[in-house]
Structures are given as structure tokens and as C-alpha cells.
Amino acid sequence: MFIAPKNTDLLLTEAEGENLYLKLIEQINKDFNLANEGIDFPLSISPNELKIQLHEKIYRLIQYKFAEYLNLLYIIDVSEEQIKKLDGSDLVILSEQVAFLILKREWQKVWFRNKY
Hints:
Layout: H1 8-17, H2 21-34, H3 47-64, H4 66-76, H5 80-85, H6 91-115
């Protein structure tokens, strides 16, 4: 049964522990490209660097390309309900939380594909 990790660091540690970290990066790259928001994380990227760069990308999308940001969330299939629960008063914190939701959804896809 899939149990979502509580934060980004736990999620990335779990992905590495199950030897699915590279698949997670591939899934992120694939979905961002589907949304025409080309992002090309190298497979050699460290978990910490992935977290930072994803956060920065989401921040820039919210700030400058909001329609594309919404399209990305739709393509990745991030829960609208979870997005609505977030406090949007601080853009830096919001983008960090959204980056976690994206990672969580991408991890769920990779995990299920691996298990079933």
C-alpha cells in the first residue's frame, strides 16, 4: 500500500532506498516536458540539488507564468484540493509546498509502476 512520505527529504530518501530515484527524475523530466515547461534534470543530480532546483522552477512559474504553472499541475495530476489548502501569503513557502506536492505525486506514479 502506498503511504506518502511526510516531507521532501523523506520522500527522496525513500526513492533512493528503493533504487527508484533515477526513475523519479525521469518522471519529473517527462511530465514537465509534456507541459511544455522543459526541465532537464541530469540523472546525476543530488537529491538536495533536485529539491532546490524544483523549488526555484515552481517559484518562477508562479511568479511569471501562472497559466503554465496551472497547466503543469494539471498534467502532473496534483490534487486541486491539496493546492487549495495551502497558504499563498508567502510565495517562497508556497512554491516549496507545491514542489513537495509535485514530488509526492511523481513519486506515487513511479512507486505504483514499480510495484504493479
